[in-house]
Specification:
There is one protein chain. It is built from 5 helices and no strands. The chain is mainly alpha-helical. The chain folds into 2 domains: 18-97; 101-128, no CATH class. α1 packs across α3 (61-94) and α2 (46-54) packs across α3 (61-94). It is flat and about 60 Å long.
Length: 128
């Protein structure tokens, strides 16, 4: 057996371009965050963005729209991170690198819940 001694450390493989790819993905994420703040049903300019982010005393329409879009953007980032973590956990638990929700029966339960949500079922479940 090949055992590690107390003085030896286990070395992990890090791809050659890992830093460059990580930096690129962080820049793309920042661009997407700014795009989410600037574009919507009404496009906001850079001055409105700066006022909404850094000047809380400004009460313009653009600043209030930016403050509302911040909540939407943060929530979408958190939801995306949660979905990524849940997918990684599902792949780790099942030890299957191509695991999807159908492995655990998530699709089946959602399909059943869709049928429970019909008006006839609501009347039936009301009396239970």
């Amino acid at each position: 057996m090949n055992k590690l001694h107390a003085t030896e450390q286990k070395q992990y493989f890090i791809p050659k371009h890992f830093g460059k790819v990580l930096l690129f993905l962080i820049i793309v994420l920042a661009i997407c965050v700014f795009a989410s703040l600037l574009f919507g049903s009404r496009t906001i300019g850079w001055t409105g963005l700066i006022d909404g982010l850094f000047h809380p005393d400004v009460q313009s329409h653009e600043a209030s729209v930016i403050r509302q879009r911040i909540v939407r953007t943060i929530f979408s980032l958190l939801c995306g991170a949660a979905l990524g973590v849940s997918g990684a956990l599902m792949q780790a638990v099942t030890r299957n690198p191509i695991a999807d929700p159908s492995i655990l029966g998530v699709n089946t339960h959602i399909h059943q819940a869709k049928h429970i949500n019909t008006p006839k079922m609501k009347k039936t479940l009301f009396f239970l």
